[in-house]
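One chain shown below:
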Amino acid sequence: MGRLTRAELQARNRARVLAAARDEFAERGFRDAKVDAIADRAGLTRGAVYSNFPGKRALYFSVLADLAEREAGPDGTQRPSPARGETPGAEAPGVVTAREALAAFARAWVSRLPLATDGPARLGMDLMPEVLADQRVRQPFAQLMKLNAIVLGLVLERLDGDASARRRVRVAETALTTLHGASQMADAAPGFAEPFDIVAACAGLADLDLGDRWDLPHLPFVPQARPAGEPWSPPPAVDALRGEPAPLARDGVVAVLGLHRLGAVEEAVRAAPPGGEVTAVLVTGDAGELGPLARLSLADLRACLRRAVPAQAWPRLRVVHDDEGAVAAAAGVTAVSDGTEAAVRVRSGRVVARADGYGACHAAASAEP
């Protein structure tokens, strides 16, 4: 057997560290876990751990993201653990209404909650405390939740059949708030909440009128999209919502968004012409720690959506993780941060318009074709 390349060796060491960290966090919890112990479990040095992950919290987020993506599967189909006795790949093909979709989504969510707080169930218990501990994590997490609500809300609107008249994002926000609360109670007080009640409560949200209407957020100024005519040659990328190659070459809007600006993608979705494709390209100034947090959030959403909603109800919205900034660079955005907002309009393999700054998503999506 030949010698491993440097990239292969790094990938192997990274996998060893992730496996060791998963065992350490499961046994000791995040707070009591030690990086030295993780290095010993992996058969590596402490320096080797830090060469792959910038810190213990980044490693913790990476472990959770890796597990979530494995559970969701490469095609987005959830793979429940055998201990819960569920059927892999179970879906709800009969879902045809927003109420049914919310019920199915909630069932998928509560089926994944831990039934105890020892052993492997401990793994996710420290996620929210770590989010709460640092504003640098809270703000991106809030925007990731906003993105999840936008996706779920758009699904509900398509099932309603009246997306132009009734926005459903606030209903989605309320459902996600309920389900995240159920997750926290499952950690703090296992067995407290009746899962059937949680499902019924989420289904009932579909009947609420929260006065939700789309209004373009107030902006101090709205940038104008600039005409362009450059070739569009995006690199291969994966749609994090569907677990499949992202069709970046198609006509549509590509929005490059830092993790503080994810809510702006709705401006592109609302302004795009009927049937227009919108792709949100997620970038961050802290790929080591916030990148895994974004992967975790989208993988959890994907696992539940794919079990709850038929493919025809999914919105024409794609989400791409771009930790290396390759897609952003192809769009002409060479320097990224968590505050980045830039967008390009693509047609027939060329960038025909571009915009930068607050309001860029709306400007690019509403630019004359």
Summary: The beta strands are 226-231, 238-239, 244-245, 252-258, 277-283, 317-321, 341-347, 350-356. The two ends are 55 Å apart (CA to CA). The longest helix spans residues 6-32. The first strand starts at residue 226 and ends at 231.
